[in-house]
Amino acid sequence: MGKKEGFFLNRLRAHVRVQPPTTTSHHSCSQEPPNVSADTKGRIIIVVVDSCSESKNALLWTLSHCAQPQDSILLLHFLKAKPSPSGAIATGEEETCDKHTTSKAYQKVSTLRSICELKRPEVKTEMVVVQGEEKGPTIVKEARERGASLLVLGQKKQHATWRLIMVWASQTRPLTKTDTVEYCINNAPCMAIAVRKRGKKVGGYTLTTKRHKDFWLLA
Question: Are 46 and 150 spatial neighbours (Cβ–Cβ below 8 Å)?
Answer without folding.
Answer: yes
